[in-house]
Amino acid sequence: MTFTQTKTLADKVRADFPILNQEVNGKPLVYLDNAATSQKPLLVLNKLRDYYEQYNANVHRGAHTLSAKATDAYEGTRDKVAKFINAASRQEIIYTRNASEAINLVAYSWGMNNLQPGDEIILSVMEHHSNIVPWQLVAQKTGAVLKFVELTSEETFDLEQFKTLLSDKTKLVSIVHVSNTLGCINPVQEICVLAHEYGAKVLIDACQSVPHMRVDVQQMDCDWLVASGHKMCAPTGIGFLYGKLNVLESMPPFFGGGEMIAEVFLDHSTYAELPHKFEAGTPAIGEAIALGAAIDYLTNIGMDKIHAYEAELTAYLFEQLQQIPEIRIYGPKPDAKGEGRAALAAFTSGEVHANDLSTLLDQEGVAIRSGHHCTQPLHRFLGLPATARASLSFYNTREEIDVFIKALKETLEFFGGLFG
Q1: Phi first, then psi: what are they for 136, rounded to 5°?
Q2: Which InterPro entries match (predicted)?
Q3: Which SS3 state, helix, strand or coil, does residue 383 take?
């Protein structure tokens, strides 16, 4: 697939996503829930099917042809992930089921063995539950203390407050790169510099950034980074943890079982080298191979092109939403080119509950998310029971935004009649 400049990016790729051409409730589907999960192109679906149809076998353990082919494809994806985020070594890439498992791996392998009573962990109020709950559990067991960065008046990460929270007691900073609710892009490189000055480790939740922009872990200089495949055009059940080699080498295994061992005796075991030390049991082989296909797909388009096109959509989405008086959008505003925030908008609409809004929009074929988006602490901080969220991807179009805005206005008019 080769891209030219004659059409929009979405025009060139939509044929690769059959699901986008179906109807929902008798209306053409407008899928604006990409922050929850992305759709999958045929290249990815076919790669998954090819594995099960043509070379289904367990990896690493067999000398026969099918096992060798499966192993090559499975390990080939590790190389693709490493290149995609610019890791220094393929050994720094650990397969996980999702980002939640990756964070838990760090929490239990590193956190339980390095945190002491009184040590401090810095998070932010905008974190996804998967980047709060594991640290709560570890803090309860180790005596570590959680501290939270709040928001600026523009509803972004308060870097100045963060500086005041840092101290010699800070052992870990775990921060989202892009908020799935506020859409703000956090200054992760500066966060890493500041945290490292105090000898603290840094974990970055990149679930909402890796699918939408170029991410370079060496430039960022984070100690760990996590992402989920299903948000980047790959299947569910596959994600990855990046960790600096020396940090991963210092961490004990998280799960025990097959594959992660060197030798097993009745009274003790020795463990495999990285990355296999952290990959116990039969993995999600087909899903990992399909993740490689998704990375190929995104790379072929170009992450810079994806980011630029999504910025254009963001500018248009905000321009349209800001014309509706009832709408209050959360997080920073984009600039005129749509830069400065992610391609999503979480909003409230007067007295209309987000769930009611989402339900009626669904009747018009428009899929958006409603609720707390796994950010209950953030919603409490903002004094909100829920928000509605429209989130874009590179296969969305301006025309779909127009359909969404029209349906949104009609829905608000309907509720206005009820409340009036």
Answers
A1: -60, -45
A2: Aminotrans_V_dom, Cys_dSase_SufS, PyrdxlP-dep_Trfase, PyrdxlP-dep_Trfase_major, PyrdxlP-dep_Trfase_small
A3: coil
Q: Comparing C-alpha atoms, which of 234, 179, 237 is closest to residue 208?
A: 179
Residue 167: count other Cβ atoms within 10 Å of its Cβ.
11
Cβ neighbours of 375 (radius 10 Å): 25
- Closest Cα partner for 183 from 398, 378, 405? 378
SS (H, E, C) 221-285: CCCEEEEEHHHCCCCCCCEEEEECHHHHHHCCCCCCCCCCEEEECCCCEEECCCCHHHCCCCCCH
CA dihedral angle for residue 322, residue 323, residue 328, residue 333, rounded to 10 degrees: 10
pLDDT per position as a tens digit, 53-88 = 999 999 997 789 999 999 999 999 999 999 999 999
The C-alpha atoms of residue 288 and residue 381 are separated, in whole angstroms, by 37
Q: How does pLDDT run across 81-107, given as a tens digit for each residue?
A: 999 999 999 999 999 999 999 999 999
Question: Rounded distance, CA 225 to CA 208, Å?
Answer: 12
Model's pTM, two decimal places?
A: 0.96
- Structure token digits, residue 209: 């950034």
Helix (H) or strand (E) holding 402: helix 398-419
Residue whose C-alpha is closest to residue 317's, from 408, 379, 213:
408
Q: Give the whole-number percent of the chain exceeding pLDDT 90.
A: 92
**CA 366 to CA 360: how far, in whole Å?**
9
Whether 374 is catalytic: yes
State the average pLDDT over residues 387-393.
98
Cα angle for residues 172, 209, 284 (degrees, 5° grid): 85
**Which one-letter DSSP state was computed for residue 149?**
E
Helix (H, G, I), strand (E, B) or coil at 124: strand
Q: Is 116 exposed, middle or buried (0-12, 13-18, 19+ CB in 10 A)?
A: exposed
Residues with Cβ within 8 Å of 365's Cβ and at least 6 positions away in sequence, in order, are: 23, 24, 25, 26, 27, 28, 29, 30, 403
Q: What is the 3-state secondary structure (H, E, C) of 356-382?
A: HHHHHHHHCCEECEEECCCCHHHHHHH
Poorest-pLDDT segment among 260-269, 280-289, 297-306: 260-269
Query: Of 184, 207, 222, 374, which is the active-site residue?
Result: 374
